[in-house]
Specification:
Helix content is 41%, strand content 26%. The chain is an alpha+beta fold. Strands 7-8-12-11-9-10-14-13 form an 8-stranded antiparallel barrel.
């Protein structure tokens, strides 16, 4: 609503006259400074000095809501109504503060925006850099996880191919044995190829390599005891060790137990663990 429309409305509704609005018309917000030893401000380009009753109340650097007395034609005298400081702002209701801020922003945005941009440019750049770094780290971690998964799948695929080749070799060998055994005289008993469960032979063929006819599965779980004195090997489809041609490679076995040449290892089947127990 225009100010003059507001005046007309209140004059009509409440019986006010134009003189009643005079103090409102001459009320404004001023910031005082000291120049040439005198404390003053300006209103519409006209100098404003403190009223004599407020010379010990209004000081340089302060902002006041003032009523102006233009008893002189060339300058105004200001009477302080309310000093605008932190205490004044804290006493305002939240909606009053929001209205003041909104009004200042709408009317002085062209002045305030460059100041804020200059003041907070470094902060904004730092926040942007931090957000970028966090996003980069997040995606790098996800990429690393995916690469590890791909590597594990590729490694398992290679191992599975080697296992399949080994099984084909064993199948061909068994077929050859079957053909040769078909010519044996009737009544000759079959011999157990791997011996009894209690008599398992395991041979150490290298620093990290062990061989046994009992190693007839493609994957095994290998468990090393806490005192590094025994190893338990048991078959499992998801085992972490691959077996090919009855041979298992145990990485860093040579660091745990020295190797001076091939030898037969002390071993037995363990019903407790469901696998072969080997003594180092």
């Amino acid at each position: 609503m225009d100010f003059m429309d507001l005046v007309a409305r209140y004059n009509e509704e409440y019986g006010m006259v134009d003189d009643d609005w005079e103090k409102i018309r001459t009320t404004t917000i001023l910031t005082f400074v000291e120049e040439n030893g005198k404390i003053s401000s300006r209103y519409n380009g006209v100098p404003v000095y403190r009223d004599r009753d407020f010379e010990k109340t209004i000081f340089a650097g302060e902002t006041w809501i003032c009523s102006l007395d233009k008893s002189k034609l060339t300058f105004y005298f200001a009477k302080g109504i309310q000093r605008i400081d932190s205490a004044f702002m804290f006493e305002l209701k939240s909606e009053q503060r929001d209205e003041i801020v909104s009004c200042i922003w709408e009317k002085q945005r062209r002045i305030i925006e460059p100041i804020l941009e200059e003041k907070y440019r470094e902060v904004a750049a730092k926040n942007l850099e931090q957000a970028t770094e966090e996003t980069r780290s997040k995606y790098e971690a996800e990429i690393k996880t995916l690469k590890d998964s791909i590597h594990n799948l590729e490694q398992k695929e290679t191992e599975n191919k080697q296992i399949i080749e080994s099984l084909h070799e064993k199948l061909n060998a068994k077929n050859s044995d079957a053909e040769s055994q078909s010519s044996k005289p009737a009544g000759v008993p079959e011999l157990m190829p791997f011996g009894s469960a209690s008599n398992i032979s395991v041979k150490r063929s290298g620093p990290d390599t062990i061989i046994s006819d009992a190693f007839n599965k493609s994957r095994y779980f290998v468990h090393l005891s806490a005192d590094h004195r025994t190893i338990v090997i048991r078959p499992h489809e998801q085992g972490n060790v691959v077996c090919m041609n009855n041979t298992i490679v145990l990485e860093r076995l040579g660091l745990i137990s020295s190797f001076n040449g091939p030898y037969d290892m002390v071993s037995e089947y363990s019903p407790l663990y469901g696998g072969i127990q080997i003594y180092l």
